[in-house]
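Reader question, answered in our methods column.
A reader sent in the components of a multi-part assembly and asked whether the whole thing could be modeled at once rather than chain by chain. We filled in our standard form and ran it. Here is what they sent:
COMPLEX SIZE: two components
ENTRIES:
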Amino acid sequence: MNNPVINQTIKSWFGYIKQANKLLDQISDEDLLKPIAPNKNTGYYLLGHLAAVNDLLLPLLGLAEPLFPEIKSHFIRTPDKAERAFTVADLKEKWSAVNTELEKQFNSLTADEWMQKHTAISDEDFAKEPHRNRLNVLLSRTNHLSYHLGQLVLLK
Amino acid sequence: MNNPVINQTIKSWFGYIKQANKLLDQISDEDLLKPIAPNKNTGYYLLGHLAAVNDLLLPLLGLAEPLFPEIKSHFIRTPDKAERAFTVADLKEKWSAVNTELEKQFNSLTADEWMQKHTAISDEDFAKEPHRNRLNVLLSRTNHLSYHLGQLVLLK
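And here is the structure of the entire assembly that came back:
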């Protein structure tokens, strides 16, 4: 990896993962079960959502199969509900395992590979829109993480 | 500007500015005066904060003086309070004017200039930490914007 701009983007991603971990350490498991605002998502749901989105980065970036395919149906495009399929401790473990795997995978990609297309775009569309590469997914997911960190912090 | 990664980063910034504008259009001025959650910041404060942070990008990136230096003391490191120094309409105008200026300035920077240091770091520190360049500030501010968008959306 010898492209300083790509390095910065990856470094930024891991900086926000670290910030998320610090924040999760500051919120009790009991408080994580509360909604971030009246009638809004709970911290539990946001944690599951972030873990599921990160896990799906593995296939989206063409790196690996998801580690925990069973969480997707609960936390992606499914609204938060009173029923809890997982414990907070279990979700935290999955969140950590996924991030460890992403770190390993990200460190093995070359600069050229970051500029290649992700798996959700056709060759034809990628020829027309070459910015829709792996790096763009990472930029987008970093901001998605920040977006939900701004919500999780309300439980602190 | 011929660096595709830098282009993507700038494109991403303007994408979130656009998302912010769309969101602001969906929240009434009356609702913007409400807190995002009980005892938390109001939408008014977050709008002023984002406008002030964007305005301060002009000097931080060494591009220009801030357009509205008078807003800084109200919205940066000053807690939200009941007193309202500006109207929502006024803050929205400032927000738009600042973003127009940033767009003009960003489009005039070369790839090399994006990799140069920002004004809040010394030459000595920059030699040791070359990633602390203009582009890194932009990455960080894009995530800062996303963080607060995740809060503003609670008023929708």
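What stands out: The mean pLDDT of chain B is 95. Chain B touches chain A at residues 3-9, 11-12, 16, 36-38, 40, 115, 130-131, 133, 135-136, 139-140, 142-144, 146-151, 154 (CB under 8 Å).
Send us your own complexes using the same form.
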